[in-house]
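Example with several molecule types.
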Amino acid sequence: MSLNASVLAVHLMPSSFLNGDTNGSPTNPFIENGYASTAFQMICSALVMIMIPAVGLLYGSFAEKKNVLTILQISMLTYAVVCLQYMLIGFSLSFSERSSLFLGDMYHFAFMNVDWTALTLTAPALPGIVFALYQMQFAAITVALCFGSVIERVRVVPCIVFAAVWTTLIYDPIVFWTWSARGFLRNLACPSDALLANSPCQIGAIDFAGGGMQPFSVLHSLLSPY
Amino acid sequence: MNFAATALLWFGWFGFNAGSALGATPRAAHAGVLTTVTASAGALTWVALDYWHTGKLSTNAFSAGAIAGLVGITPASGYVPVWSSILIGAITATCCFHGVKLKVRFRYDDATDSFGIHGIGGFVGSILTAVFASKAVAKLDATVIEGGPLMDGRFEVVLYNIVTAIIILCYSYLGTFAILTCLELFAPVGLKFRISEEEELEGQDLYELGESVDSLASSIHAQRQQMIASKLPFTSHGHQSSVFKSANAAAAGSIKQSNDFIELQEVAQE
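Resulting structure tokens for the full complex:
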């Protein structure tokens, strides 16, 4: 049994290992073969998606029993709306690479030109379509989090309208500034370089997974006048 | 429910942070480790603080602490060394623990402590990211950054992150306010944000969705009882099938509708 296992192990090893050239040794970085990143990113998209009903459950747990279904419904309706918005214009506004410092253009309107080619400056390891799927889930979870402080106080339909408008006017520009290759916050040290065609310097604010997006939760203090 | 939600969020947050590496790289794995370590540190800190104040080990405290930790590590997960994640979790949870009390002090309304945890946690996390940022960690997927004050002796990045946090805060605050003001202009055509008093009393589920956690189950149960009592066969001919259809509609509706159905059934029997 152990013999078989060791024979198998030798067969599965990359040839570089046999030459004493280990994949992932201190001197050699991991080499990716095939579509590892693509698969990984699709699993991550699904993991982020499950956070949206989870946010509904979390906020529901603070609510009275008679309002719980509404909160779950708001989180899922918002998800559906934002997915459509992101497919149509959101992705283009937040990640188009042919644009200014402040907002994307309509190059990727309705996921046009989003295919197996990578967005080379933003996510070089991924096909554009996988990157777009992942970012779509991100946009949806952010908007779902948005309603935390206003549950049990707002009606459903205005929430849906608000979600569509808010994600277009607030979320997409902020994403462009902080994550997109040419965003001005990501290139704070060298805004003039960022506009040049090939190499934005990308020295500026660092934000790995969007902590800077969190201040939206002041929503309720804004809503109080109404 | 709170517990299930926290568990699902924690689970999903692996995708959130590790996925932000945008590739199956060692940096993604690093982010995944930081995610769970920080959430643990945050949860323990919050439970300890809460225990110190109340003498109880609350599950709500655990959830709040875990989420505070997760929020705090979100901007940092691909930039800081592993040891610092314990500090980030503890600091963020402590700040949020005191932050959620601000709503009593300043008398704003926040149903789920969303600002106390996400707002303050995000802000603190952004700044801690810059403080602990390390060249070596970003290099895990060959990304080049300048590094922060503690690890690489560079202070600029702290400044950049503070400026960024303030710009985003102002933009989202003013922008959201503008959107709400504009939408409120459409209040007369049915886009009134705030619920009416009537709705608040009746409960949003019944008032807007026409269903509720209780009535969904109970109306189906009532309908079955009726079916059995009246010995209606589940066939598809004549008026009985239309009764059956209305029974389905009633099942999806409220208690009120299921009463209508009972009346309807009586008519059908005559």
